[in-house]
Amino acid sequence: xxVVERYxxxxxxxxxxxxxRVTELSERxxxxxxxxxxxxxxxxRQGLLKRSxxxxxxxxxxQPETPFSEREIMHTEEKRRIAEEAVRLxxxxxxxxxxxxxxxxxxAASLPDIPLTVLTNSIRVATQLSTREKIEVISTGxxxxxxxxxxxGPLAERSLDTYYVNKLFLSCKGLHLDRGxxxxxxxxxxxxxxxxxMADQVILLADASKFGVQAFAHVMDxxxxxxxxxxxxxxxxxxxQLEERELQMTIV
Length: 252
Description:
It is built from ten helices and 15 strands. By secondary structure, it is α/β, with parallel strands linked by helices.
């Protein structure tokens, strides 16, 4: 098999399955795993796929992140109500984690200046809290994504390994009752997966527009959510289905 033919085969396999591991590609292409790793690096530079831990994922259906400046003015009133309700769940001395969503930013804006530790991968959240004397703010660092003003990537993920928090407040690109919580790309999904694993309580902030949406990268199953805060635009049938799952839910 020629090198060009192998490249075509790798991209075809990854696109067909959505993701492939290095070991699988090595067997299918009948070359060493080291050769496959070099091939994946080259194909990623060409924008034909994206490297992941132990393999590669397709970029065929990947959705670009909506810029923060656009998300900031979408469903504003609902997000503000959700954020204000979420703030009511915070107690002095809590250790909390806020993601880089606009709803988390609204939370930061309305947080009272009480003794808290706030960990975040959001530049906007960290900046918003910078004037609070009693709130200790810890930023993850990592690869900066300009569209969302967030830190992602291996450094951000490793920095999260250092901490545990009482409560995680996060949003998402999509919330599907059967397929769970999803994000627009793998980098955002991976850092949020890491967040979920280090929190005692996972609180999902999702306005009604997120429901029924299946974005590109899976974050977690709905059963991993401890508390859902959403808004009154949610259809009654969806509310009924959520209640059947015995998910703790607040509608504002």
